[in-house]
Specification:
Elements (H helix, E strand, L loop, with lengths): L1 E9 L4 H14 L3 E6 L9 E9 L13 E4 L2 H6 L9 E5 L14 E5 L1 H9 L5 H13 L4 H9 L5 H16 L8
Parallel strand pairs: 1-4, 4-5, 5-6
Antiparallel strand pairs: 1-3, 2-3
Helix pairs in contact: 1-5, 3-4, 3-6, 4-6
Length: about 180
């Protein structure tokens, strides 16, 4: 088993943090994982990207040429890194503020959900959008246990209670979603 993930959005949305959490959670499951990221003007609000590879065997090459899962919190980042999307890539997109035509990715399974809206609804701020998205993703991929993610979150003691709550909001968003699709 080998799964590849691309996380993208704008700098400040916690893209690198959530990719790091996914990677660490996979390691908690005794899987192999590599996480890479870009450090540019993205930290100041431009597009940001992080890649994660999870495998049950040793990973020889850390770069992703094509994603199994493409998680985008902005349309700009989706379009900028779309060369990493193939016909089999599953796209997860935050459609709180913007959308895109499904015609761009006719063959893909696409999940469009208001992750940022959920963060505002529950916390009155958007800081937890990334963790809510991770909760949704963990249920969708079904290869990492929830406890492994909680264990990873506990290493970052800052705002632990709200981060746990956000993670379970994402899980519930998946469980209550009417747009579940065969993967």
């Amino acid at each position: 088993m080998k799964k590849t993930f691309v996380f993208c959005g704008k700098g400040g949305q916690g893209i690198i943090f959530v990719a790091n959490l996914l990677s660490q959670s996979a390691i908690n499951e005794n899987l192999h994982s590599i996480q890479t990221q870009i450090y540019t003007a993205a930290q100041r609000g431009d597009v940001s990207k992080s890649e994660v590879i999870i495998s049950d065997y040793q990973i020889d090459y850390p770069k992703i040429e094509s994603a199994d899962y493409f998680i985008s919190l902005t349309k700009k980042s989706l379009l900028k890194f779309r060369e990493l999307i193939n016909d089999n890539t599953i796209i997860i997109f935050d459609n709180t503020y913007e959308d895109f035509s499904d015609d761009l990715f006719k063959k893909n399974v696409i999940y469009k959900l208001p992750f940022t809206k959920n963060s505002f609804d529950y916390f009155n701020r958007c800081d937890y959008t990334n963790i809510i998205t991770l909760g949704f993703l963990i249920k969708l991929i079904d290869i990492i246990k929830e406890d492994s993610v909680i264990k990873s979150l506990e290493k970052f003691k800052k705002d632990l209670d709200n981060n746990k709550k956000a993670f379970f909001i994402g899980i519930n968003l998946y469980n209550n979603s009417l747009i579940k699709k065969e993967v």
